[in-house]
Structures are given as C-alpha cells and as structure tokens.
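Batch manifest, entry 17 of 40.
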Amino acid sequence: MDFLNFGIIFVMSNYSLIEIVSFKKVTFYSVKEIYADEELIWFSDFIKKIENEEKISIREMLKMIGNKYEAGEQFFRHEGQAQALPSKKVNFIEIKSNLRLYCLRINNNAVILFNGGYKDAQKAQDSKISFHFQQANMISKKILKSINNKSIIVGNDNRLKWDQDLII
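Output type: structure tokens
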C-alpha cells in the first residue's frame, strides 16, 4: 500500500465545549479542539475565514435569533446529524446563500456553533467545505451521545451543563 498517496492525515484531538455568548433567549456554544499544544475554537476559526460583511451579518443573525426569536428549527438547514445556518427562510438579514456555518441545535435556547465556509458545489460533501460538513456530523453524534448518557445535561434553564474536564 502506498501511504504517501493516502491523502488524509488523522490527528488525535480532544474536543470540549465552550460557551461563546449568551443572549436573552439563546446561548451559543462552540467546540474547542485540543491537539498537541494547540487549541482551536471552531466558531472563531470560521469567523476568521469569512469576508468582513459576512462577519457582521452572522453576528447580527445570531443576535436576532438570540434576543428576539429563539433558535427555532426554521432558522436551520438540516445537514445530516448536524444543521447549518443560515436557512433559506432567514430573511431578516442578508447573507450569501453559499455560506454555511455548521452547528447543532440542541433546543430553542441552546446551539453549538461549529465551523464552515463557502459551499462551492451542489452537495456539501462534494464542496471545499466537505471537511467541515463531515466534522460537524462526527461531533454532533458525539455530543448527542453525551447528552443521552448525561455527560452533558440540558438544565432547567435550557443551558448546557457539563463537567469542565469533559472530553467529547
């Protein structure tokens, strides 16, 4: 087998959750990936990669959802186990239709933001953001399993609670 042409490098990473921002109606979280001596917060990485006008639009969209609307299903695209923002139904703010911010909507009050980018093919799996699509689905399964086995708890206030040492 020719290992040089394998094409994928697997890095052993640990994943944990981090709270990003809490609004009146929704708290947004993200994933912190820890590998070697490096840390990467997925949502922060997403924000660094997109155009300035899109950064403003994403922040305004999150603020509107968080303060005014709640995280209803109508705001999200279904992307396998994960979801993505924005939905085609988001019409209160202008965002390029090919931009995808992968996430996991836990309920109307808790959303975990992942990574994403600009989709350049009909299917996300065939796009340059395929890695983020696959990563979002992989971590969504792990998070849902952690909620199911009570490692992550949705509190009475609809906020997520977990042991700070939790590795997903």
